[in-house]
Amino acid sequence: MNTRVIFVGIGGATCSGKTTLAKHLRRILPNSVIIHQDDFAPPQELIPLHPVYGVQDWDRAEGAIDWPRMVKALKEVKRTGEIPPEHISHDHLNEQKDVPITEDVYQKWKVYFARVQEEHKKKGEEIKWVLVDGFLLYWSPEVVDKLDVRVFLRVPHDVLKQRRHERHGYHTAVQSDPEGSLWRDPPNYWEQIVWPAYVEAHAGIVENGDVELGKPNGTVSGLILLDGLELSMGDMVDRVCGVLENASGGGEAE
Description:
Blueprint: E1 2-12, H1 18-28, E2 32-36, H2 61-64, H3 67-80, H4 103-122, E3 125-134, H5 141-146, E4 149-154, H6 157-166, E5 170-171, E6 182-183, H7 189-202, E7 224-227, H8 233-248
Parallel strand pairs: 1-3, 1-4, 2-3, 4-7
Antiparallel strand pairs: 5-6
C-alpha cells in the first residue's frame, strides 16, 4: 500500500481561528493529524528581548520559531506520514473557545472523505492528511514549499486585539519542558510587539503590504484567503473541504 501525505497549511494571526478550523478538519478527515507551529518555539530562555521595549519578543518571526527544527520535522512527517514519537504538543494546555459548525456540514464532508479514502485504498493508496497551523506559517519559504494546500485566515486588527486581551495567557511549553509556564502579555504587548510583528511577517504576501485589505500577491503560490468575519466557521470548513476535494482527486461531494 502506497502512502500519500497531503500537507494542508492553515495560517493566520494569533486569535484568528486557525487552530479551531484545523481541529474541525481533523474531525472530518480520516487519517489526519495536526502539527502546531507553536510547538516549535524555542525554550523561554532563548526568546530574544525586543531591542526597544526590553521584553521577551515571542512574535517576531526570526526568533519566535526554531525554523530548522520545524523544517526537519515536516520533512520527516512528509516521508513517513507519522508525527515523530519524540514530538510533544502543548496545544491542550491553551485556552480555546468552542466555535461549533452545523451537523449537516460535518456529516456531508465526513461521509465524502471516508468514501474517498476507501476508493484510494482499492487502488493501493492510503491518504494521510497533515494539518499545519501557525501564526507565522507563510514567512519561511522552506515551510511554504512543504505545504500542498495553503489557507490564510484574515481577521481585522481590532477584533484580534479584543480576542487576545480576553485570553488568560499562553503556555510556553517546549519539547524539553512539556508543561512549561503560563505567559501573560505585559502592558501594551499587543500594540508594541504582536501586531507590528504580524504586519512585518505578512506584508510581503499581500498587495501593497496591506495585511488588512490587500489581496494575495502571488508570493505564496495558491494562497486561499478566508475572511474570518464575513464567513462563519462552518462556511470556512465548507470552503476548505471543497479545496481538499480537488487535492484528494475524489469526485464531487453530494
